[in-house]
């Protein structure tokens, strides 16, 4: 058997007690870490913006740190929402951070079953070309002897997040093209 | 210590779920897509990935009418917190503001708190530890600990468009709850304040339009008896016993030193010391 003298036993006990005492006193590396935890928005650049979803137009603050959106919240100084946001407005950070966000214009050719990435220049030229082509081929100048100057082959759809100035521009452009179907998301 | 509380007025909630998204946003919680189960409710209940869930209940009133009940479901921050009591690593603590927080670095994922929470709120979820490993740790609402300690209100409270979630001292919130109760009584005769005494009151409490049963809440939640026996009786006794042993050893050591001086070689210990030439 392992023989232990009384003195050795006492020394061992003392060492054990001392170890336990130190452990109980708590040399805890986590404590320092917890104390250092600072507010997530303490060192962020804040940009005010307007919610892109419904027509209420709530104010939102976007918090940016290291070129990433770390938080978005209702703007407490905004007269419309005074700091509050609904579930859609609260999720606005995901518009930027989600991996499902398309970063280039997406194009689906007629008859095709898949989307492909295109450049903005190509996209704008293509839209302009198609608008001109459609308008010219369907433009009606007179109907029953009355001048109408219209096309019924194109429609315009506005969104709730458009502001006065954008609505004005859209009206000018669409009326200029001769559109009659100028609609708004909130009416359908 | 001033106890702070989050007061949730269930009677005026419209169920917009802004609180749910704001919580995920502030706490960087992951997406958790769950299967459709026949109701408008997005998640089954609170868990480690979703710290607050908007419960949607279809309720039939006494007169046969239909009423939607919407409840912001999250950690109650019990004054006598069962999770804190059962935690063997002391990872769960109540801060000076009365909110109950879990130290993710101290937690070992034993899930005692998960099984002892009277409201089934705490749950295990992925956590990336100091070594970059993904481990299972107990997680739940911490009432936006860093926010409230900087003088802000919790993210859910700030985003609520109806002022249905209000944050302030417990005293102020109790007063506000009484005022709102008087108003709510006109529309909901069964309205009540849910601040259960079985856990010494909670620092997240409700004004409910109907009894707690209508929301699947426990009528009288209590800290589990086993937890009380273990933490309030067994553990202090165990610590006393350990302390006693240490004291006995220390006393024995000192007395041995004191009284054995001069006896020298007659002692058994001395003999061995001689032979080992220590």
Automatic annotation (TrEMBL), chain A:
Source organism of the structure: Evansella vedderi
Lineage, top ranks: Bacteria, Bacillati, Bacillota, Bacilli, Bacillales
NCBIfam families tied to this protein: TAT_signal_seq (TIGR01409)
Protein name: Formate dehydrogenase major subunit
Enzyme Commission number(s) from the entry: 1.17.1.9
Keyword 4Fe-4S: yes
Cofactor: [4Fe-4S] cluster; Mo-bis(molybdopterin guanine dinucleotide)
Recorded family membership: Belongs to the prokaryotic molybdopterin-containing oxidoreductase family.
Protein keywords: 4Fe-4S, Iron, Iron-sulfur, Metal-binding, Oxidoreductase
Subcellular location: Cell envelope
Residue ranges of every copy of the 4Fe-4S Mo/W bis-MGD-type domain listed in the record: 44-100
GO molecular function, one term: formate dehydrogenase (NAD+) activity
InterPro entries per UniProt: Mopterin_OxRdtase_4Fe-4S_dom, MopterinOxRdtase_cofactor_BS, TAT_signal, TAT_signal_bac_arc
UniProtKB/TrEMBL annotation, chain B:
Compartment list: Cell envelope
Residue ranges of domain 4Fe-4S ferredoxin-type in the record: 4-34, 66-97, 98-127
Top-level taxon of origin: Bacteria
Pfam families for this protein: Fer4_11
Main localization of the protein described in the UniProt heading: other
Gene3D superfamilies from the UniProt entry: 3.30.70.20
Keywords: 4Fe-4S, Iron, Iron-sulfur, Metal-binding, Repeat
PANTHER family: FORMATE DEHYDROGENASE, NITRATE-INDUCIBLE, IRON-SULFUR SUBUNIT
Entry protein name: Formate dehydrogenase iron-sulfur subunit
Source organism of the structure: Evansella vedderi
């Amino acid at each position: 058997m392992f023989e232990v003298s009384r003195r050795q036993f006492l020394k061992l006990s003392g060492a054990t007690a001392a170890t336990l005492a130190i452990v109980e006193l708590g040399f805890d590396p986590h404590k320092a870490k917890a104390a250092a935890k600072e507010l997530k928005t303490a060192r962020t650049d804040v940009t005010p913006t307007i919610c892109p979803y419904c027509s209420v137009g709530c104010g939102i603050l976007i918090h940016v740190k290291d070129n990433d959106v770390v938080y978005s919240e209702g703007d407490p100084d905004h007269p419309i929402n005074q700091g509050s946001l609904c579930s859609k407005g609260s999720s606005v950070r995901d518009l930027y951070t989600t991996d499902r966000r398309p970063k280039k214009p997406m194009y689906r050719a007629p008859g095709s079953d898949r989307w492909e990435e295109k450049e903005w220049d190509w996209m704008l030229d293509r839209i302009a070309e198609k608008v001109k082509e459609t308008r010219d081929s369907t433009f009606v100048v007179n109907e029953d002897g009355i001048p109408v100057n219209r096309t019924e082959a194109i429609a315009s759809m506005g969104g709730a997040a458009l502001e006065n100035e954008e609505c004005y521009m859209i009206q000018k452009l669409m009326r200029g093209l001769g559109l009659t179907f100028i609609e708004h998301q909130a009416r359908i | 210590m001033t106890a702070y509380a989050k007061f949730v007025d269930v009677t005026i909630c419209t169920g917009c779920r802004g609180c749910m998204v704001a919580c995920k946003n502030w706490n960087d919680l992951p997406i958790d897509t769950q299967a459709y189960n026949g109701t408008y409710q997005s998640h089954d209940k609170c868990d480690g990935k979703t710290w607050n869930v908007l419960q949607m209940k279809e309720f039939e009133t006494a007169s046969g009418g239909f009423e939607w009940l919407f409840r912001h479901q999250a950690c109650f921050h019990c004054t006598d917190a069962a999770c804190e009591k059962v935690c063997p690593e002391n990872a769960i603590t109540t801060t000076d503001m009365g909110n109950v927080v879990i130290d993710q670095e101290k937690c070992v994922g034993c899930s005692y708190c998960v099984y002892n929470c009277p409201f089934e709120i705490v749950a295990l979820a992925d956590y990336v530890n100091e070594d970059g490993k993904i481990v299972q740790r107990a997680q739940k609402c911490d009432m936006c600990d860093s926010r409230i300690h900087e003088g802000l209100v919790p993210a859910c409270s700030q985003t609520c468009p109806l002022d249905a979630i209000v944050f302030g001292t417990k005293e102020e919130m109790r007063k506000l709850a009484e005022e709102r109760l008087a108003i709510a009584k006109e529309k909901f005769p069964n309205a009540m304040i849910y601040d259960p005494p079985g856990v010494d009151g909670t620092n997240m409490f409700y004004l409910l339009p109907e009894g707690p049963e209508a929301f699947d809440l426990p009528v009288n939640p209590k800290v589990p008896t086993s937890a009380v026996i273990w933490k309030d009786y067994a553990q202090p006794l165990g610590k006393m016993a350990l302390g006693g042993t240490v004291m006995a050893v220390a006393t024995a050591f000192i007395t041995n030193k004191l009284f054995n001086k001069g006896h020298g070689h007659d002692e058994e210990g001395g003999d061995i010391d001689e032979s080992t030439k220590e």
